[in-house]
Each structure stands twice: as C-alpha cells, then as structure tokens.
Amino acid sequence: MPKSIIEFFKKHIKDNFFLYSIILFCFLIGVSVGAFTVKVVNIHQKQELVAYLRGFFRLLDESGLTGLDIFKESFSNNFQLLLLNWFMGLILVGIPFVFMIIIFKGFVIGFTVGLIIEEFKLYGILLFVFAIFPQNIILVPAYIIAAVTSISFAFIIIKAKINKVKNFNYSRHFLIYTTIYLAVFATILIASFIESFIVPFFIKVIVRYIQ
Q1: What DSSP line would sit under the chain, residue for residue?
Q2: How many domains does the chain have?
Q3: Rounded to a whole number, what is the distance in angstroms from the first to the last CA of the chain?
C-alpha cells in the first residue's frame, strides 16, 4: 500500500512537473517579498511586531499556552487555508486565488524568518532551525502539492469542456482530487503535532537567552 502511494505521487509529480516548477517559483517569490518587506517596514511597526513576538515567547515560556491550544490553532489555520484551496480548484475561476495562497504562504515564512533573524541574530537563526523549519518541512510541500492538484484538476475540467469530451468521468477525477487533499490534510496533522508538542520545547530553551 505505501509503495503504491509513493508510485502514485511520483507519477503525479512527473505528469505535473511544469506546474510544480511554477508553483515553487511563486512560493519563492512570496518568501523573497516577505524577507524584503522586513527591510522596508518602518521602525515603529517593527518594534510592535517584535514586542508581539516577545509576548508570545513569554506566554509560551510561562506555560500560558498548552500544546493542545497550539495544535487546535495550527491545524485550524492550515485546514481552513487548504480547504479554500480545494474549493478554488472546483470553481475553476478560483485558480488565481490558488497562486495567491501559495505566494501568501511564502510571504509569511519569509517575513517571519527575516524578522527574527534581523532582531535576534544568532538566536534568530536557532529559532528558524528549531521553531520554524521542523513543521514547514512538511507544510510547504503539502501546500505546493495542494496548489498543483487544484490547478491540474481545473485544467482537466476546462480541457474536457473545451474539447466537449463525451462520457467524461467527472466523478473519478473528483475522487482522485479529493483523495489527494485528504492525504494533504493528514500531513498537516503531523505538522501541527510537531509545531504544538515538539517545537515549544526548543523555543523555551532558546528564548531564555533572548529575554
């Protein structure tokens, strides 16, 4: 079973390699713009953001947030964004929003990493390695796969309509489309678990040297 799943995704990536390249490029644009934005944000806004970060670190260090609280928030945010992605693939005209979501995801990561490294220097790098990278090594591929799947599904439907394909098996394509998304939702459960129950331990250790 796992082998067949791996083979399926290998074929999926091979068949949609061009789309994967475009989506990855869009994600990197988002990361670059996010990192650049840190440089142009005025000092007062930057101070407010850093104060918010420090407040979050303090709350986490004082056990004001439980792992379950973080898990619910993390999973809910990612689930809603990916569910929107899924829906955008269904309505066809929502494809531009799929690109916007992946760029937004890149922007958030780029801005966050840029801000903590600029503000906390070496400790910022440690925060990136131990607090941002672990869950995003799963989340980023999940978002990229979701985006490609939505666009690919929309193109299949559009192509079938343009070519007026008779006996087009919409149900089959919809089932494959939704099954891939269910797999993606399963991966964000893992990412949310890491973010909620593993990452906070490292954050608590690092922020003791920052506060």
Answers
A1: -HHHHHHHHHHHHHHTHHHHHHHHHHHHHHHHHHHHHHHHS-HHHHHHHHHHHHHHHHHHHTT-S-HHHHHHHHHHHHHHHHHHHHHHHHSSTTHHHHHHHHHHHHHHHHHHHHHHHHHHHHHHHHHIIIIIHHHHHHHHHHHHHHHHHHHHHHHHHHHHHHTT-TT--HHHHHHHHHHHHHHHHHHHHHHHHIIIIIHHHHHHHHHTTT-
A2: 1
A3: 49
Q: How far apart are CA 95 and CA 154, in angstroms?
A: 8
Nearest Cα to Cα of residue 126 among 39, 209, 211: 209
Instruction: Encode burial over 98-127: b for 16+ CB neighbours within 10 A, e otherwise.
Output: bbebbbbbbbebbbbbbbbbebbeeebebb
Q: Which residues of the chain have pLDDT under 70?
A: 1-3, 61, 63-64, 211
Supply 180's token pair.
């891939």
Residue type, 18: F
Cβ–Cβ < 8 Å for 78, 177: no
Could you tell me the residue range of the domain that residue 155 belongs to?
2-207
Query: What is the C-alpha separation between 77 and 2, in angstroms, rounded?
Result: 28
| Tens-place pLDDT, residues 36-87 | 999 998 888 888 888 888 887 777 767 667 888 889 999 999 999 999 999 9
Query: Which tokens hold the place of 172?
Result: 């089959």
Answer yes or no: are the C-beta atoms of 184 and 84 closer than 8 Å. Answer: no
